[in-house]
Every structure is written in C-alpha cells, then in structure tokens.
Design goal:
The protein is α/β, with parallel strands linked by helices. It has helices at 9-13, 27-34, 46-55, 88-97, 123-133, and strands at residues 17-21, 38-43, 63-66, 77-82, 98-109, 138-142, 146-152.
C-alpha cells in the first residue's frame, strides 16, 4: 500500500500522530514519516520489526514496536491504519484510539468468486462486522479481491 492510496491522508499527515498496525518491514511507515507525521508502527513479527528498523533512517523518528494486536490499547491518534480487518472488539478499541475528527483506515483482502483463500471473509460479512463496530463507515471493493474501509470519528459536541 502506498500513502497516495489512503483517502484523506494528505490533510492529516503533516500534523498528525499515526499508528500503523501490521507494518511489516515499514515501507508505508517510512512514506508517512517523510511527510512529517509522528509514526508508531507495530507488527506481531519481531523479525519484520527488526528489518523495518534496519531499513529506516534514524532522522525519520519512527517508533517500531512488536505488539500483538489483541493486547494493543492505543490512545490519541489522528490516523490509524490497519492492514487486515481485526476482530470486532479490537476494531472498536482502535476506534476509541482516535481523537475526534480522526480517521481509521483498514485495507485487506476479501473472499470472492475467484479467490477462496482460507481465512478470507466474503465482503458482505466484512461489511456487517465493520458497520456494527463503526457506524457510518465507508467500505469500498477494489480490484484483485481487495477492499478498503474508512471511518471518521465524529467531533464531540
């Protein structure tokens, strides 16, 4: 995924705290940090985080952490990016991590007529889970059995 493919990223990044979940080797985290964001990038794989650290210039200031998403309880982010739909309770927790007016963006693969990969949910099931946890979210189907989900936390008051 490239930073240009995330709807609403441009106005958020220059002033934002960004959390990327499932960062892998940190490619997207580095793109976002180069735009001036304060990035925290997490992954469950210690090997991926070690490689991300080795590929990242220190001046970018990215905080890489090995974290199990089930134990993650973040707070105060302007943008949370997730690379696969988490469990509903985790999705709700991530929504709580956002400041009012901030965005939660999920990108992943869904099961389609041509892709019956194990563990992939049909888009209709993804939509049900997402809409229950994030009322008003926008779900889009993309080429190649991919989807994206965008939800903006309401401003208070």
């Amino acid at each position: 995924m490239h930073a240009e493919t995330i709807p609403g990223l441009e106005p958020v990044v220059m002033r934002s705290r960004v959390l990327e979940i499932g960062c892998g080797t940190g490619g997207l985290a580095r793109q976002i940090a180069r735009r001036g964001a304060n990035v925290t990038a997490v992954d469950a794989s210690a090997d991926a985080i070690a490689e991300a650290r080795s590929l990242t210039a220190s001046h970018l200031g990215i905080e890489y952490r090995v974290v199990d998403i089930e134990r993650l309880a973040p707070r105060g982010f302007d943008l949370v990016i997730v690379h696969a739909l988490p469990a509903p309770d985790v999705l709700s927790r991530l929504a709580e991590a956002l400041r009012p007016g901030a965005t939660l963006f999920v990108s992943g693969r869904h099961r389609s007529w041509w892709s019956r990969a194990a563990g992939l949910l049909p888009l209709s099931e993804i939509a049900g889970i997402a809409r229950a946890a994030l009322p008003g979210c926008v779900l889009r189907r993309h080429f190649g059995g991919r989807y994206s989900l965008r939800w903006v936390k309401r401003q208070m008051g």
